[in-house]
Amino acid sequence: MRGHAFLVGTYHEGSSPVHRAPLWLKFLLVCLTGAAAFVLVDWVVSAALVFALLLLHLLAQLPASHLRRTAAALAPMALILGGWQWWQLGLPAAARIVLNIAACVLAAGLMTATTPVQQLLDGLVRASGPLRRFGADPERFGLTMALMLRSIPFVLGAFADSRAAARARGLERSPRARLLPVVIGTVAYARQTGEALAARGLGDADADADEEASAGEGAG
Predict the structure, then answer these.
(1) Are residues 11 and 95 both part of a single domain?
(2) Of 125, 43, 108, 115, whose CA–CA distance to 70 is shortest?
(3) How are the residues of the chain apportioned to helix, strand and coil, as percentages rounded to the nearest 5?
(4) What is the 8-class DSSP label of residue 69?
(5) Greater pLDDT, 64 or 172
(6) Is the pLDDT of residue 191 over 70?
(7) What pLDDT sits at residue 143?
(8) 70 shares a domain with 41
(9) What is this structure's pTM?
(10) Which of 37, 61, 183, 214 is 20 to 30 A from 17, comparing alpha carbons?
(11) Residue-range definition of the domain harbouring residue 63
């Protein structure tokens, strides 16, 4: 099954100024864009923000396929949400809401497309470091995020594989033919991941605590 090859938010190598920008600056751009979505009340300003983010995509020299995937993902939501808001609030308000959402997606996509996944995870671990005093484990948090980033594309790809296989057998209308392979593949993937973590000594928190307690008793 090629589910693991189904990539979302793929990193594209490059040497553009956007690629070389520090992670904190890209994260600040995402935060400011998200904050702007709650502040902007004029669709013209929202359109200008989207245009500026598109210019950053061009500056980053990202492939056209990246924007096409983003547009394809946004289109259904934009049509449904935009149509509803148009009916309820009018065209200017609908345009502003859709453009603000598009700006947030473009900003997040720009950061993930120009930053290696490992660098993103390292940044998350460093950012969550101050929470260690409250009992949080930044390294475990980073591992959890890494597993999530790996698992979501696998599950999405599993759905795509199952749908294609069901269509090839003429069973595209059968929920069982489309869902059962996904469930089986996902459970197998989860077990393999758990076994790989256990083999590297990365158990759950309770197991780690028991091991530490046992080591302390042995030393005593």
Answers:
(1) yes
(2) 108
(3) 80, 0, 20
(4) H
(5) 64
(6) yes
(7) 67
(8) yes
(9) 0.66
(10) 37
(11) 7-115
